[in-house]
Amino acid sequence: MRVLVLLLAFLSVPVFAQQTMPPAPYAYTQLDDPALEAEATALMETLRCLTCQSQSIADSDAPMAGDMRHQVRARLVAGESPTEIRAWLTRRYGDYVSYQPEVSATTWPLFAIPLALLAIVALVLLRRLGKRRSDAASGAD
Fold this sequence. Notes:
2 domains; mainly alpha
């Protein structure tokens, strides 16, 4: 019986390690201007939640996403453009925060490597197809 109680206590430890902060507020922080709120939402959908990493800050309930949504809205109200806000968040959190990274000294491999792999595959296929054609042509004679 003691072993069972100890086992249940051991298995319940992760429950106590869960985050105790409530989810980030979303509904009451929306802007009064519908056009500005639409602009904020469009920007937030292109920014990655650094806690969740698979959700945009518009979809995430993480407290950090709530803070980022607040920053986006506050900066829009202050007159900054979405491009300026994205640049500020990228400087603060790194290129990973954006679902639309720009080509820079740190992100160019993200764009160059797929193109290089496609070129290598194309060259290999052309060589193999070229060999087959030459083998078929010489065998037909």
